[in-house]
Amino acid sequence: MDAALDLVVPILAATLRVAAPLILAALAGLFAERSGVVDVGLEGKMLAGAFAAAATAAVTGDVWLGLGAAILASSALALVHAFACVTLRGSQVVSGMAINVLAAGLTATLALAWFRQGGQTPSLPAGARFQPIAIPGADWIAQVPLLGRVVVGVFGGHTAPVYLALLLVPVAAFVLWRTRFGLRLRACGEAPGAVDAAGVSVAKLRYAGVMIAGVLCGVAGAAISTAQGAAFSTDMTAGRGFIALAALILANWKPWPVLWTCLLFGLLDAVAIRLQGVPVPGLGVPFPVQAVQALPYILTVILLAGFVGRAVAPRAVGIPYVKER
Predict the structure, then answer these.
(1) Sign of torsion, CA 23 300 243 108?
(2) Which end of the chain has less neighbouring CB within 10 Å, N or C?
(3) What's the domain count of the chain?
């Protein structure tokens, strides 16, 4: 039993750490797309947030200032996306992809120009990174046979973004399904004409959904560079924004399924990390690193190919709303 726990508990703990940015990004897409705006720019906003957080933390030595900078940078790109899609009624997919391209080029260029370290920021000291937080009563809980070790080992010692990601799932579910704002936001994605007829501004609600997505993407980016990592490197989000978008589709645009889907991707990523350097049974050679790293992306393609047809998107998502006169 102890040997099994020694194997399983670290993998589950790593699953939560890896899944946290995915959960935040998927919730970001949930708010944007429930309002009727397709957001394929999650990747770009996360990358901008990761760079802004690491750069600010490297200069100031304050991780919270880094988090604030990440939110501002991501929100600025979200505002551009909202203006292009809601005000100008442009192509939402094109706008999102443009944000991805802009963020990828701009972050690498600024990192190279400002820090002269090949597109990276300096390594962050301990005070400029999110540190693990001990759960209250961990010593007492750990004394409970078996269960205590699992609870403390899996849920204890994570950074603030991990706990925030888990907390925001029930918050998002409550806001979207139990508040007037959430009802109106979802109505914008289903029947914007009815929302307009009720005297509520569709444009304002869609701006709100996209801007909430910008804030959450900023937190996700900061989690990658200042919690999971200790610096920014070029394209360090590594497609997580697209995986989060896939998780959102597989979860049918609902908060709790988003959590389980992101945890599934996180589990595969955690297992892939553990497999690096482990010999293949019967062959005596290690698992190919490239194949192991590709597992989460292969799973994304397989799941989308098998289940995307069953996903029911908001009916008005991706359709610019033109106010009836």
Answers:
(1) positive
(2) C
(3) 1
- Which CATH number fits the domain that encloses residue 17? 1.10.3470
Q: Write the pLDDT tens digit of every residue in 142-184.
A: 777 777 778 888 888 899 999 999 999 999 999 999 999 999 9
**Measuring CA to CA, how many Å separate 240 from each of 171, 221, 264?**
22, 10, 14
CB 187 within 8 A of CB 62: no
**Whole-prediction pTM:** 0.93
What is the three-class DSSP state of 317? coil
* Domain assignment present for 324: no
- Give the DSSP per-residue string, 258-315: HHHHHHHHHHHHHHHHHHBTPBPTTT-SBBPHHHHHHHHHHHHHHHHHHHGGG----T
User: Would you call 255 helix, strand, or coil by DSSP?
Assistant: helix
Asked if the structure places residue 108 within a domain, the reply is yes
Structural tokens at position 16? 């939560």
User: What pLDDT is recorded for position 1?
Assistant: 55
pLDDT in tens, 130-153: 999 988 877 777 777 777 778 888
Query: 47: domain range?
Result: 2-130+138-310
Of the two residues 69 and 139, the one the predictor is more confident about is: 69
Q: At what angle do helices 160-178 and 255-275 cross, to 10 degrees?
A: 160
pLDDT tens sequence across 289-319: 667 677 777 777 777 776 656 778 899 999 9
C-alpha distance across the termini of the chain, in Å: 70
